[in-house]
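WARN retry 2 of 3 for item q-0093 after timeout on previous attempt; input resubmitted unchanged.
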Amino acid sequence: MNITYQMTKEEALQKIEKVVIDKLQVPVESLFHNSKKRNHIDARQIFFYLCKDRNIRPCYIQDYILSEHNHKMAHSNILYGQEKIKNYMRVDTDLRDLVKELKCLV
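OK item q-0093 returned
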C-alpha cells in the first residue's frame, strides 16, 4: 500500500520558518518583529514568498505568527513581501537561486 503523508499548514509553516532561519542565519525573534535590518527583512519576505509557493493563505500566516511568536502581522505586509521577492527574483539571479534552493528544502 502506498501512503503519502501531507503536512498540515502549521507543520509546513514551521518547516518553512526553520529552513529560512537556518539558511539565512537570522534569529527567530527578528524574523517577525519589525526588525529593519536588510537581512531580516529579506528573510521575512522570503518566508512569505515560500508560504505563497506552498499555497498557504495570508490569514493562516497571520494566525501562525500570532500564535507562535505573539506578534500581529498585517495582511498587507505579507502580500507586499511576497510581491517584493517575486519582483527581485526577476533581476537578481543569486536571489532566484537561493529561493530555488529553499523551495527544495521545504
